[in-house]
Amino acid sequence: MGTTTPGPFSTWGISMRIRATVAAVSGALALSAVAVPAAQADDGSSHPSYRARAEQALSHVTSSGSGRTAFRAAAPPAPDVSFSNFKVAKAVKVGTTNHVSTTATYTLTHGADIDITSEDFANGPFLYKGSSIDNATNMLVGDYPATCTATSATTADCTGVIDIDPGEDWLPNSDAGTWSGGGLALTYSTRGEKLQGGLGKILVQRNSKLTVNASPEPVKKGKTITVTGKLSRANWEDGKYHGYTGQPVKLQFRKAGSSTYTTVKTIKTNSTGNLSTTVKASVDGYFRYGFAGTSTTPAVSAAGDYVDVTS
Predict the structure, then answer these.
(1) Are 201 and 295 in contact (CB under 8 A)?
(2) In angstroms, what CA-CA distances link 167 with 44, 50, 186, 281?
(3) How big is the chain by its Cα radius of gyration, in Å?
(4) Cα-Cα-Cα-Cα dihedral sign, residues 204, 99, 63, 201
(5) How many CB atoms lie within 10 A of CB 130?
(6) Can you tell me whether residue 16 is helix, strand or coil?
(7) Among 35, 74, 103, 241, which is most buried by a count of CB atoms within 10 Å?
(8) Among positive and negative, which fits the CA dihedral 174, 235, 294, 104?
(9) CB within 8 A of 197, min separation 6: which ones?
(10) Where are the strands (E) in 173-237, listed by range?
(11) What integer pLDDT is reported at residue 30 of this predicted model?
C-alpha cells in the first residue's frame, strides 16, 4: 500500500461506517488509504465532527502494511494525556436495528499546557476487538466527546458514551464476545491523537429472545402439558433473528400465588432453536423457559405462561 499524506482535516484511511463496504469488496479487514470528503461539524465550521475525527484516528491503527508505518512516522505529536480508573458496564446487548449505547467513566490526566475546555481538544472512550489496539479487528466510538470536570490543574473526571448502531456500524457475528476499552484524545488544529488501550473489558453480545407456550389451557390434573418455545438471537450480518441451536434451556414453573420459579428440567434447543417438552399437570401456575446466556449471547427468560389446572 502506498504512502498517503493527509491534508488539513481530510480523512486519512477510512471510517468505521464505510469499512463494511470495503470488507465486503475485499473480503478482508485490511484498510486501504482511501481519500474521502471531510465531515463537517454541526455548526458548519471547518473542523470535522468528533465522531468522524475519532473514527479517523482509530482507522490509523487498524490500517495495515507500509501505509500505517509511514503515517506513524510522520504523525503529529500526540496530546500529553493518559487515562486511568476506566469503568464500563459488564455487557451491552446489541440487536439488529435499534441504536444502543454504553457509558464509560475514567480519569483524564493531562499536561499543564492542555486546556480541556478548548474547542480544539476532545477526548472520549472507545471499544476494540482484539488483544491490543495495533491488531484490533474492529472498533466502536461515541457520537460525541466525553464531558469532563476538572479535579485539579492536570486531572479531570470524564464520562463518555460509546454508540452502537447495528444497521450502520460493521459488526460481524464473529465479533460477539469480549471487547476491550480504551481512551482517545484529539487536537483538531495539529491533528494530534493519543490512543490508550487495555483499560477494561466488556461483553458486546448478540441480543437474545425467548418465547414460551404451554398447552392445552385449561387442562385436567394429571394430564399432559406440552411446553414449546424458541430461543433466538440477533444476526448482525443480515439484520434478522435466528434460532440459537444446541443451547441448554431450563423449563421453570411458578405456582399460582408464589413469586418464585423452580426448575423442572433442562432441555436443549434443536437445529432451529425450537424447544418442546412435556410435563404432568398438577396445580395452577406459570411455565417459562430460562436461558443462562453465553459470552456472546445474554441471558433471557420468557414471560410466564399461565395454565389453569382443573380437577
Answers:
(1) no
(2) 26, 20, 27, 45
(3) 25
(4) negative
(5) 16
(6) helix
(7) 241
(8) positive
(9) 128, 132, 133, 180, 181, 182
(10) 177-187, 192-206, 208-215, 219-220, 224-235
(11) 30
**pLDDT block averages, 10 residues each, the chain of length 311:** 27 33 32 30 55 89 45 74 98 96 98 95 97 91 96 98 90 96 96 96 98 97 98 97 98 97 98 98 98 98 98 90
The CATH topology of domain 208-310 is Immunoglobulin-like (2.60.40)
Domain definitions of the chain by residue range: 16-206, 208-310
Q: Which of 162, 157, 127, 165 is nearest to 145 (CA)?
A: 162
CA distance 301 to 275: 13
Question: Largest Cα–Cα distance of the chain, in whole Å?
Answer: 83
Measured over the CA atoms of residue 249, residue 255, residue 260 and residue 263, the dihedral's sign is negative
CA distances from 24 to 27, 66, 110, 139 (A): 5, 22, 40, 17
Q: Are strands 219-220 and 309-310 parallel, antiparallel or unpaired?
A: parallel
Residue type at position 92: V
Q: Are 62 and 175 in contact (CB under 8 A)?
A: no
Q: Which residues lie closer than 8 Å to 78 by C-beta, 6 or more apart? A: 185, 192, 193, 194
Measured distance CA(207)–CA(164) in Å, rounded: 13
What does the pLDDT read at residue 135?
A: 87
For position 16, what pLDDT does the model report? Answer: 42
What is the pTM assigned to this prediction? 0.82
Predicted local confidence at residue 159, as pLDDT: 98
